[in-house]
Write a structure and sequence with these properties.
Shape: globular
Number of strands: 0
Number of helices: 4
Helix content: 55-70%
Largest sheet: none
Mean pLDDT: 84
Radius of gyration: 14 Å
Structural class: mainly alpha
Length: 83
């Protein structure tokens, strides 16, 4: 096993901490490891190359959703986005 240090912008850190609390992760380290596993090992069907503006928009949407505790299922999100 290898150890890394990870720096996060304050807003992303706060939202990650809320996500950890809401979804039962032990800590941000476990969340990060799971996110990396998903990104690397699960089959991706879509091009995930985003512009800086798109990434900022996604971060804002996640932040607002976490703040409002307004979450939808992955299926509903896919229906909305791929409609």
């Amino acid at each position: 096993m290898k150890q890394i240090n990870l720096k996060l912008p304050e807003n992303l850190f706060k939202n990650a901490q809320r996500y950890v609390e809401n979804f039962g992760f032990r800590n941000i380290q476990d969340l990060a490891a799971e996110a990396i596993r998903e990104k690397i090992f699960e089959k991706n069907e879509y091009d995930e190359n985003f512009s800086k503006e798109e990434i900022n928009l996604i971060d804002s949407l996640i932040s607002i959703s976490v703040t409002k505790k307004d979450f939808i299922s992955e299926e509903e999100l896919n229906r909305t986005l791929l409609g």
